[in-house]
Design brief:
Elements: E1 5-12, E2 16-23, E3 30-37, H1 40-51, E4 56-62, H2 69-76, E5 80-84, H3 100-113, H4 124-156, H5 169-177, H6 183-213, H7 220-226, H8 234-244, H9 253-259, E6 264-266, E7 275-278, H10 284-294, H11 305-311, H12 316-338, H13 343-368
Parallel strand pairs: 1-4, 4-5
Antiparallel strand pairs: 1-2, 2-3, 6-7
Length: 369
Amino acid sequence: MKKYITYVGLDVHKNSIDVACADSDKKGDVRPYGKIGGDLGSLDKVIRKMVSLGRELRFVYEAGPCGYEIYRHLTRQGFHCTVAAPALIPKKAGDRIKTDRRDAQMLARLHRAGELTPVYVPHPEDEAMRDLCRAREDARHAERKAKQQLGAFLLRSGFRYTGPSNWSLAHWRWLSDVRMPHPAQQVALQEYIDAVRLCTDRVQRIVAEIEKLVPEWRLAPVVKAIQALRGVSLIVAATVSAEIGDISRFDNPRQLMAYLGLVPSEHSSGEKHKKGSITKTGNGHARRVLVEASWAYRFPARVSRRLWDRQQSLPEAVRAISWKAQLRLCHRYRRLIARGKESKTAVIAVARELAAFIWAVARHVAAAA
């Protein structure tokens, strides 16, 4: 006996979930179920009612700020659940009416038609490490902002540091000698200085926790191996691994490049072919750290003492990939600069190929495991 399927669309919000259903045996019928509370208990009540009808249930909802709690809750109960990529959901041209009810019906209809693109749901351990790496990124942003505010306050007060570099020991000593003409300004200066120190301490604490937790992580072998590549420090390796997750899900490096948004955009029609800047789709956190790492390839290829120390316990095949990457990427940067490309454009091109070498190292580690 054929078992029919009910596709359940969920439009998820903080305090509510709109539910709609589409049956596999009724192609044109998409019916709204109603609005329920945003907690898992309310969802379980709906599931119990639907299960009693004896149909197979397949759920779908858009990826959003509520995370993957519903996905994990449903899969633990044995239900099929898809988290759809919002940017890849087909939209009707000229549709100017958007409601939660309509969104739930649209999700159910498209899921039944097979026109939704699922996102990769990270392993809970990978997501935890990703949150820690993003917390460090946020702390770095707050530190940079605090330094900018302190510098702006000193500049408009008529104080200019003439030393070789800011935030060095000499710069901190100069800050301690600054005397403002008014007591209120002196208090403001001290508050700005304390804010910078607090942000710096916060960054250092998070980095220390990353260093402590990475060896216990399931992706620790991958993190250690890709540090063989020049410019890929522990923070870069941990961030890339946490954001990408299981690299084996990419069949070839071109898929990883596209996922990171490092491939050129294109607008071609007929005999006209035009390529533009990179797409910047996908994961921006991993793309940013890869671009930062790629600046190391501006200089001639060499194995520095720090890189040599990171490679000592790694297989010869991984070290060979690292050296091949240096020879190719350093030459590519110089060649692009010689052709008149801007340094930023050349670094983006290097970052695209660096992602391919990271893919190669990760696949080698997975094959050796």
